[in-house]
Design a protein that fits this description.
single chain, Protein kinase-like fold, Rossmann fold, Phosphorylase Kinase, domain 1, six-stranded antiparallel beta barrel
Length: about 850
């Protein structure tokens, strides 16, 4: 029988073989019939031996033909043909016509051996036929660890080829989307350049007013304040030009109760005006603070930046504000004095910043808590909340810090004024509605306008702060809670217009203190311990009226966490460049939910709160959401500004991460501006916020190293500065070139438990290039604690990390790593 050639299909070969077999068997039947009629009859063993040898030769030829067919391009498993069925029928007739052997002769032994060889060859044919079944695992994964040990062929089939073609189509589609995004980004960048030019033009009209400050200092000048009055006399001249000095005492001090000293730039006049100040009077403990504030409010003019500084060691009258007693001799005057809460609301509405320098915190804490709540509960006429700053100068020697505190407040007001002017100019230039409500840091916030107190609202009381003591939280009772977290989906393209983050939640036990260790404008910080993760965290809880609106809304907390996760993702992309000398990262943040906080001994506002690891250190602010950027020469300032620029280009102009602040290179609490105005909460200023950033941003060496495209026109014309021009200008401004990352360390937040860890920047880059994340040592130990399952595909036992899947909020796999697609297997570890 001739062997098959590559141009014949296996089915054709099998049909030819079957026809030859039919002819041979029919010839054999005719020979047997003729032999039975002949006078001389051969022995049965001779016939069997001859038949067996012929069968062996035929089967060997068939095996050679099958082997040749297996080497052909395609593999087809055919069902038995009519010819095959005819062969089987004739073979049965031949076997039926054979006589039984008598005594084993040499030919009989030879026939038995031949039959055994036939059985062996037939078994090989059957096995080869079974290998025509395509391995389903190989089809899905394009590889198989068992290779030839399995009785299945690993040749490609049509289904696998279709899958490979579809994968190529998806890859091509992704490239086409990337090209379209780049083309759209070119248009977005061109539009942004025009917007920035419009904002700069509008800013020139507003800059003079934005750079003018009106500062009023209101000081308690009763007998106990003598050291502070003397300090004011010696340092007031060095503070600022053009301010007002108002003194107040108490009702018992007659016409000396209130004194106003309007100051000018004339140094001699200033010295003469305040030199006669003296500390006297006072009467009872509380003082006439509302009277001093009323006189101060009349002194403000039209400047954009306004700041009132109150210096006091005693509260105002009325038992609501203190735990002492009022001198009822002056009951009528006390009752007729202005409402200090109304004064604070009016001050906030008029956009006047407030600094309270407390000399005796134990006496004034209750009053300060109430005034701060009133201040932040009122929206301003321009939509930008002003800052309420509290500074404690209670220890011996703190009096010398008076001038620096006032200067700092003045500087803060001027910076905020410029930021407000910038964002207002941006809105005017871009034709955007000018009113929104912005928090004291420049973030737009929920409308916390003044409302009547509700019965179930928590009383506005001073929050006693205590230093962090982790041993105290260890003795707190365990509370059932749910931990919520957000994650980017692995191996999926990110659509920056419509994020699709995976929301996961895990049941857990926590310990958290009701008392706080820190208090901000809208949130308090509490020590906390997650029992399941075995991690110390900081719970950030909204309080007061803010809590009734934002703190009890899962969507508000999710917005906070979403911004943190998006910023962390982009920070990772930023830090993967070897040209970035100072890598940055954001704290991994989640939020917790407690079903019944009151039963657990907590406040109602602690039903939901965000949590993150505690970072000890000096917090620095590098930019805000209004376009302000730090010019204090901070080490990471250039890197921070470049990061904001990078996020805009990396997302093809769809969003920008701003309001960067933190300890070292670990940032927290960012704000995101997005072209999709419904995303990222009320602080999203969209194009107006991005344009405001580019007005003040000057591309630096980090921008050049990352080849970031600027969005500003040159001073000489309308041409957009190119990346090469930026590189040249940066080289001129900074001779130092960016160095490739070698062994410089970086700080980052563990993506599982959020712990702060330090690793080599080069190791961080290498890990992510291999598709892995960088974890802290405790998480690595817990990841190595494996669980066991049997693979649903290959049935072998495999190991997996229950901790990793629980922290990622993913179901453990049903198959082993080898049984999953190669592009997913890297996520097992």
């Amino acid at each position: 029988m001739s062997s098959s050639s590559s141009k014949h299909s296996p089915s054709a070969i099998r049909a030819a073989e079957a026809n030859e077999e039919i002819a041979r068997l029919r010839e054999q039947m005719r020979a047997m019939e003729a032999a039975s009629a002949a006078p001389r009859i051969p022995s049965a063993s001779s016939v069997r031996a001859a038949e067996a040898e012929a069968e062996i030769a035929r089967l060997r030829a068939q095996l050679r033909a099958r082997d040749a067919a297996d080497r052909s391009p395609s593999v087809v498993t055919a069902s038995p043909t009519p010819a095959d069925q005819e062969v089987a029928r004739l073979r049965e007739q031949v076997l039926a016509g054979r006589s039984s052997p008598r005594r084993k002769s040499a030919s009989s032994i030879r026939a038995d051996a031949a039959q055994a060889e036939i059985a062996k060859l037939r078994k090989q044919l059957e096995q080869q036929s079974e290998k025509k079944k395509v391995c389903s695992f190989y089809q899905g994964n394009a590889w198989c660890a068992y290779g030839d040990r399995l009785r299945f062929t690993h040749d490609d089939d049509t289904k696998l080829l279709r899958e490979k073609l579809a994968a190529k189509d998806r890859e091509l589609a992704a490239k086409e989307r990337e090209l379209k995004d780049a083309q759209r980004f070119s248009k977005i960048r061109s539009e942004m350049t025009k917007k920035v030019a419009k904002v700069e033009k509008e800013m020139r009209h507003k800059y003079a007013m934005a750079n003018t400050l009106e500062l009023v200092i209101v000081m308690d000048c009763t007998g106990s304040m003598s050291p502070w009055i003397e300090q004011a006399k010696s340092s007031i001249i060095s503070i600022i030009d053009g301010l007002v000095f108002v003194t107040y005492r108490d009702f018992c001090d007659g016409n000396k109760r209130l004194q106003t000293h309007e100051l000018s730039a004339n140094v001699a006049a200033v010295r003469t005006s305040i030199s006669g100040l003296g500390a006297f009077g006072g009467g009872d403990g509380p003082e006439d603070i509302p009277g001093g504030l009323a006189a101060a409010m009349e002194m403000f003019g039209q400047a954009e930046a306004k700041r009132l500084v109150l210096v006091a060691d005693a509260p105002c009258h009325c038992s609501r504000f203190h735990d002492t007693t009022d001198d009822m001799t002056y009951r009528h005057q006390i009752e007729q004095s202005p409402d200090i809460c109304a004064q604070m609301r009016d001050r906030a509405k008029r956009g006047i910043g407030f600094t309270f320098i407390e000399i005796q915190p134990s006496f004034t804490a209750k009053m300060v808590a109430i005034l701060q709540e009133e201040f932040y509960a009122t929206r301003t006429s321009d939509g930008f909340d002003r800052e309420f700053r509290k500074v404690t100068l209670a220890t011996s020697g703190d009096v010398v810090r008076f001038a620096s505190v006032v200067r700092s407040s003045a500087s803060s007001s001027l910076s905020a004024s410029k930021g407000r002017s910038l964002i207002a100019s941006s809105k005017i230039a871009l034709g955007v509605s000018s009113y929104h409500h912005y928090g004291p840091t420049g973030k737009r916030t929920t409308n916390l306008f003044k409302v009547e107190d509700e019965e179930d609202e928590e009383d506005v009381l001073p929050f006693p702060t205590k230093p962090i003591d982790w041993s105290e939280v260890n003795h707190s009772p365990e509370i059932a809670a749910v931990r919520h977290s957000l994650h980017f989906r692995p191996n999926e393209r990110v659509d920056w217009k419509k994020l699709d983050l995976k929301h996961t939640q895990q049941e857990t036990k926590i310990r958290v203190l009701r008392t706080c260790f820190a208090k901000g404008a809208m949130r308090t910080g509490h020590t906390m311990y997650d029992c399941n993760m075995e991690k110390k965290l900081v719970a950030k809880v909204y309080f007061g009226k803010t809590a009734s609106i934002a703190g009890t809304s899962a969507r508000s907390l999710q917005n906070d966490v979403e911004m943190q996760i998006v910023a962390k993702h982009l920070a990772t992309e930023f830090s993967l460049s070897e040209d970035v000398e100072d890598a940055v990262d954001f704290i991994f943040t989640c939020w917790y939910e407690i079903k019944d906080p009151l039963r657990a001994g907590l406040t109602a506002s602690m039903a939901m709160f965000t949590a993150e690891p505690y970072i000890d250190g000096d917090y620095k602010k590098y930019n805000n959401s209004n376009g302000w950027t730090s010019d204090e020469g901070l080490n990471l300032s250039e890197t921070a500004q470049a990061f904001s620029h990078f996020t805009w280009q990396k997302t093809y102009g769809q969003l920008m991460v701003v309001d960067l602040q933190g300890v070292g290179c670990i940032f927290t609490d960012p704000q995101i501006h997005s072209k999709q105005k419904e995303m990222f909460g009320c602080g999203n200023l969209s194009d107006a916020g991005m344009a405001a950033f580019f007005v003040t941003h000057e591309c630096n060496a980090v921008c050049s190293a990352l080849q970031l495209l600027p969005a500003k026109r040159t001073e000489s014309g309308s041409k957009v500065v190119g990346a090469s021009d930026v590189a040249a200008s940066c080289d001129e401004a900074k001779p130092k070139a960016m160095n490739k990352v070698v062994n410089k360390s970086m700080t980052c937040s563990c993506p599982l438990c959020a712990s702060i860890i330090t690793v080599l920047h080069s190791a961080f880059i290498e890990a992510h290039r291999k598709g892995r994340e960088v974890y802290c040592e405790p998480c690595v130990v817990r990841i190595e604690q494996k669980g066991k399952r049997h693979c649903s595909i290959c049935k072998t036992e495999y190991e997996f990390s229950p901790y990793w899947y629980a922290m990622k909020g993913m179901e453990p796999p049903s198959s082993c790593g080898r049984s999953r697609r190669a592009n997913y297997s890297r996520w097992l570890e």
